[in-house]
Amino acid sequence: MYRKSTLPNGIRLVTEELPYSQAVSLGVWLEVGSRDEAVTENGLSHFLEHMAFKGTGRRSAYDIAREIDQLGGLGNAFTTRETTCFHIKVLEGQLAQAADLLIDLTMHPLCQPEDVERERMVILEEIAAQDDNPEDLVQVHFAREFWRDCPLGRSILGEAEDISRFSREDLLAYRRATYRPDNIVVAAAGKLQHQQLLDLLAPALTDYQNGTPARQREPVTTHPGSYLFTRELEQAHLCLGTRALAAGDERRFIASLLHVILGGNMSSRLFQVIREELGLAYTIYSYLSFFKDTGLLEICAGVSPKNLSALLEAVNGELRRLKAAPVKETELAAAKEYVKSSIILNAEDSEQRMLRMAKNEINFGHYIPLTDIIAGVEKVTAEQVQELARDLCRPENWGMAVLGPVNADLPFGNF
Question: Within its chain, how far is the Cα of 53 from the centroid?
Fold first, then answer.
């Protein structure tokens, strides 16, 4: 059963009671991510995520780590372009202790100067690890070029030179500017009672205030084209993409099925043609991202430089084929079964239900039952998939980033 309460200061609590579960997953979500940063603040959202685990007035960094371990649960955090989330999964009888811990580290981080210095080095190592992973790095390059001149294109981790100069005062100033009660969602799913959790959390959350005016997110801009990054590697790594649908777009179910058919699983067209039939690549897949006001459809691959042109020609062909004719009913039915099965299997896990419930609240302001999602998937027709493919697969709207031993003459955009 789903319930929602809003505290006087605007913090929202959304819960889903799962009587059959023995666990509870709890998350504190802030509608703050890398796209909310000014150019001089890039990386601060992620830096603050790290600092939450470095100590509060009541707990040291070791106390936090030890308490999470003693609970036997899974506690962590992540930062995206639009959100920051602190979450934990524990047994039902440990919810009160887990909630106290999670609220404490989220709401009361000290950000001591010596901890800032230590964590700065950790983040610089994280950036270095990303730079050493070409599969990740090509996507960073793609975002930086495709979303150029708008915050969506900036690295979530930030740039090393910026991380090196940020002070404790920079972190606290950014926190004061962006951590607001009206953009905080606390979500919980599992064996719980809504009123009991509300009574437990309200005293710690109700007093949290921030009178700083909310920031307005910058409009999205895109810069289609080819972005080549020469580097001596064994493979060429590429990321192709185009602006897609926002999270609230009514065509989101169509987009999800289009993505699955194109490259979302092992039976997808890209996987079957490029890997199984042509043997051109080991890694080939598509990826679909939804944001508040836009989206991104990506195709990613790693390929031997001698096969790069052939792979791009094959991708061109599959995008042309997707636009040229409606998908077969058997192919569409298989994609629907894949999506529906994924939804139902994820619903078995309290953490996945917590994640989905929080995203629904952030993107729609209300809960969307699983039955409604499955019904939306079922309604999609082959003609709708083709129509959306024609809309999204316009060559002039696509970007392509290639990292590796590459040249400027690559056959892409002929679709």
Answer: 21
Residues 16, 49, 298, 331: which is the catalytic one? Answer: 49
Whether 49 is catalytic: yes
Residue 311 belongs to domain spanning: 225-404
Q: Does 333 share its domain with 387?
A: yes
The reply to whether 138 and 261 lie within a common domain is no
Q: Are residues 329 and 230 in the same domain?
A: yes
Same domain, 175 and 246: no
Mean model confidence pLDDT for the chain: 96
Q: How far apart are the first and last CA of the chain?
A: 47
Q: Is the per-residue pLDDT at 335 higher than 80?
A: yes
Which band of pLDDT confidence, cut at 50, 70 and 90, is reported for residue 211?
A: confident
Token representation of residue 141: 């390059």
Q: Select from 148, 176, 205 the last residue of a domain.
A: 205
Q: How many domains does the chain have?
A: 2
In the numeric block, the tokens 């950790």 are attached to: 122
Residue 94 CA to residue 79 CA, distance in Å, equals: 26
Instruction: Let me know if residue 219 belongs to a domain.
Output: no
- How crowded is residue 146: how many other Cβ atoms within 10 Å of its Cβ? 27
Q: Does 234 lie in the same domain as 192?
A: no
Q: Which two tokens stand for residue 63?
A: 């106390």
- Looking at residue 296, its amino acid is L
Report phi then psi at 175, rounded to 5.
Answer: -60, -45
Q: How far apart are the C-alpha atoms of 365 and 158, rounded to whole Å? A: 30
- CA-to-CA distance for 199 and 96, rounded, in angstroms? 11
Q: Tell me how many helices (H) and strands (E) the chain has.
A: 15, 11
Q: For the chain, what is the radius of gyration of the CA atoms?
A: 23
Q: How confident is the model at residue 161 (pLDDT cuts 50, 70, 90)?
A: very high
Judge whether residue 408 has pLDDT over 90.
Answer: no
Dihedral-angle region of residue 310 (phi above 0 means left; psi in -120 to 50 means alpha; beta otherwise) = alpha
Q: 72: domain CATH number?
A: 3.30.830.10
Per-residue pLDDT of 298-318, as tens digits, reads: 999 999 999 999 999 999 999
* In-domain check, residue 339: yes
Q: Which two tokens stand for residue 60?
A: 């040291």
Q: How many CB atoms lie within 10 A of CB 154?
A: 24
Identify whether residues 174 and 232 lie together within a single domain: no
- List pLDDT tens digits, range 366-375: 999 999 999 9
